[in-house]
Amino acid sequence: MAINAQNRLKEFYTLCNVLGVGQLDNTILDTATEIYLELRRKKMTVEDADILTAAFCMSHDFTLVTNNTQHFEIISDLRFCDWA
Fold first, then answer.
1. For the domain bounded by 24-82, which CATH number is listed?
2. Would you call 81 helix, strand, or coil by DSSP?
3. What is the pLDDT of residue 4?
4. Is the separation of the CB atoms in 79 and 64 below 8 Å?
5. Rounded to whole angstroms, how far apart are CA atoms 55 and 52?
6. 59 FRET partner, CA 20 to 30 A, in 38, 48, 49, 84?
7. Backbone angles phi, psi at 62, to 5 degrees
8. Cα separations in angstroms, 52 against 1, 7, 27, 39, 67
9. How far apart are the first and last CA of the chain?
10. CA angle, corner 50, sides to 42 and 55, nearest 5?
């Protein structure tokens, strides 16, 4: 096991609580499924983590702030802006 893994995990969960980091729920997973199917129909692919990130933002009516716009510009209805 990694050095201080248990302490680091506690710190991570504390940080998530302080920042209000959301958790996956069925709404987010349903949105992610829709994104995946839409991209598949278009014969396009995006990393699973990017699909989940987009689904999280879309489900909460958030704007995604990123400098990795190439991964997100092919996802319909996703609001994003390039912070760079």
1. 3.40.50.1010
2. strand
3. 79
4. yes
5. 5
6. 84
7. -95, 160
8. 28, 27, 11, 13, 17
9. 37
10. 85
Helical H segments across the chain, by residue range: 5-19, 26-41, 48-59, 69-72
How do the domains of the chain map onto residue ranges?
A: 24-82
Phi, psi (degrees; rounded to nearest 5) at 63: -100, 125
Q: What are phi and psi of 44, to 5 degrees?
A: -120, 155
Query: Is the Cβ–Cβ distance between 82 and 63 less than 8 Å?
Result: no
pLDDT over 90 at 77, yes or no: yes
pLDDT tops 60 at residue 60: yes
SS3 82: strand
The predicted structure's pLDDT at residue 1: 52
pTM of the model: 0.75
* Residues 57 and 31: beta-carbon distance below 8 Å: no
